[in-house]
Amino acid sequence: MSKDFRLLVKNAKQVVLVCTNGEKFLTGKEMQNIAVIENASLVIGKDGLLKAVGPVDRIDSQFQGASFETVIDASGMCVTPGLIDAHTHPVWAGDRVHEFAMKLAGATYMEVHQAGGGIHFTVEHTRQASEAELLASLKQRLQRMLRTGTTLVECKSGYGLQLDTEVKMLSVIERARKDLLIGISSTYCGAHSVPKGKTAAEATDDIIKVQLLKLKEKMSKGELHVDNIDVFCEKGVFDLECTRAILQAGKDMGLQINFHGDELHPMNSAELGAELEALAISHLEEVTDNGIAAMARAKSSAILLPTTAYILRLKQPRARDMLDAGVIVALGSDFNPNAYCCSMPMVMHLACVNMKMSMKEALAAATINAAYSLGKSHTHGSLEVNKQGDLVILNSSRWEHLIYQFGGHQELIKFVIVKGKVVYENDRTLDY
Ligand SMILES: N=CN[C@@H](CCC(=O)O)C(=O)O
Ligand SMILES: [Zn+2]
Fold first, then answer.
1. Where are the transmembrane segments (predicted)?
2. Residue (of 214, 215, 202) closest to 255 by Cα position
3. pTM of the model
4. pLDDT tops 80 at residue 428
5. Which residues line ligand 1 (CB under 6 A)?
6. Which of 3, 318, 389, 396 has the fewest beta carbons closer than 10 A?
7. CA 307 / ligand 1 centre spacing (Å)
């Protein structure tokens, strides 16, 4: 018999709502005040949307006599919104373990890149891989992210650097979006590196006159759905003027600007992003004070990537300065063959320890602010009525265990839920 609702989660020790007033993002002190309720239940409808969340007694009486496809007794457990990973490069072939060894021995990221490795190495392997191979590995990676609590993830192309492979990557992302329940925001990153044999100016021309035109055609036919445009704005990669031209061309065709900037050298990427009204700028290890102020004014979010600074032993992004200046700070894993990390709990932990964020700030950055960076904070990023029913249920009586525990999330995360459907259940018992 058909049931009235999809899911009831009852008796949770804590439910972290994050927001309660439809905020599109949180900044400054607001990030210290994320909403948490004790002894609460919630209901998700058959449309996948959150119908109600509140104290156990209120939900009991409001839904007296109602039937549910699934009921989870979350006694002693905590609920948080599904985590949002705002920056990943998950479509590629060929790992770079050998380069990790070189970097441990002292080589810098740019030394490896300029010697033809790094992104170039991955481009060679990704160009050779079939769509089926790329799809299979992408799905495994997305499942792995899901098991660590990620329910919405930004996925970039960028290991093709020419039309065919970029389209192949975007098609693989498109296919994963159809086949899996995890939410995906798709990013065209054809300007991830200057392809061998071309200058940056020639590559810029190819991107604007060939690649973007083709994407536009495929998007208008409904064959591809691309959300964002990205460029690696960096010394020796794309300079400010090439970056501006590519981002503007993407914006003109309706893409959201979300790009790599000020990572290894101060490039004035933050200032450029603010001027172009970028929704997000990632990395920012080398951002200037002016850049921070411009981002705060323009409401261009900063996607900080603690794994990159950790693995490459870079200086840490200036999270505290950005938070103090009112920048919208989000987090991402930067999953890629250089930074092989699928886990947002690990990312939040690193953000707290290395970038000096508090646990509340880190959770806000990995939920509502990450949603904002992808233009999705009206539907994602908090547990508010009418938003998508994406949740993580933790086998612990305080939500902070999600960040406090360093690794081992396979034992802490009990359920991951997307649109009210259980997409992952862990039956291991916990003893911590
Ligand atoms: N910095 C540029 N892009 C990636 C690294 C990609 C790669 O090395 O394959 C990043 O965000 O860290
Ligand atoms: Zn990146």
1. none
2. 215
3. 0.97
4. no
5. 89, 118-119, 122, 232, 260, 263, 308, 334, 336-339
6. 3
7. 11
